[in-house]
Design a protein that fits this description.
By secondary structure, the chain is of the alpha/beta class. It has helices at 15-24, 43-54, 83-87, 108-122, 136-149, 176-193, 199-209, 213-216; strands at 33-36, 64-67, 99-101, 127-131, 156-160, 168-169, 174-175. The protein is built from eight helices and seven strands. The mean pLDDT is 90.
């Protein structure tokens, strides 16, 4: 019986899976700030982000909460986040100091560009990125590309929203299993446009990240 060798030539079809695996393997650690990318009618994104913000185990270290905007003109089930929205049900935001909300975003690069503006302005030293698991790899790679473009180098920690992959995403009417394929296609397409970090860029960044004190403690 012929076994498949452990080491084979890298295949294009495996690149997205490889990148997603390495991103999601980064440990969940306390950072200087958190950011959440709302969208697709998934209230759970904001609910989880507010919970992390208000009930952090290390409240003295978590200083900023960055809420990216949404494309509310084309996403019928995704309201634009505002302080009034977040203060009401089901979010119940009460910890107000350090909260920043983007007025509007057309796409993920708009969200990441705004986040990096706040990183510079607030002197943020490390950042956790909150997004649903199916979207998190593309969001992370888009944010990483923006880091490269703006010559910023800080630890970015992925923080996937804990939700069942069978949950229906309101804006699309399908579950996360179904949406991941489209996310994978977007990663490859947007890499060509220069909006998403490439595999060599991710390798370089993760090599640096794993040597930082945040991951050594």
């Amino acid at each position: 019986m012929n076994e498949i060798p452990r080491i084979v030539e890298e295949a294009q079809k495996n690149i997205v899976a490889k990148m997603a695996t390495m991103i999601l393997s980064i440990p969940r650690l306390e950072t200087d700030a958190i950011t959440v990318f709302p969208g697709r009618g998934e209230n759970v994104r904001l609910e989880y982000a507010v919970k992390v913000w208000q009930y952090s185990q290390f409240p003295g270290e978590l200083r900023f909460f960055l809420v990216a905007g949404t494309e509310w003109k084309t996403e019928a089930k995704t309201p634009q986040p505002t302080l009034e929205l977040l203060q009401g049900n089901p979010y119940n935001l009460r910890k107000m100091a350090g909260v920043y909300i983007q007025y509007h975003a057309h796409c993920t690069p708009d969200q990441t560009g705004w986040v990096l503006e706040k990183v510079r302005a607030c002197g943020i030293k490390s950042l956790s990125l909150i997004a649903p698991p199916y979207h998190l790899p593309r969001a992370y790679l888009t944010l990483l590309k923006e880091l490269y473009k703006q010559s910023i180098c800080i630890p970015i920690i992925p923080l996937p929203v804990p939700t069942s992959p069978d949950t229906i995403v309101p804006e699309d009417g399908v579950d996360a299993w179904t949406l991941f394929d489209g996310e994978a296609e977007r990663i490859l397409k947007y890499q060509e446009k220069g909006d998403v970090a490439t595999l060599p860029e991710l390798k370089e960044y993760l090599c640096w990240l794993w040597k930082q004190p945040l991951l050594q403690n």
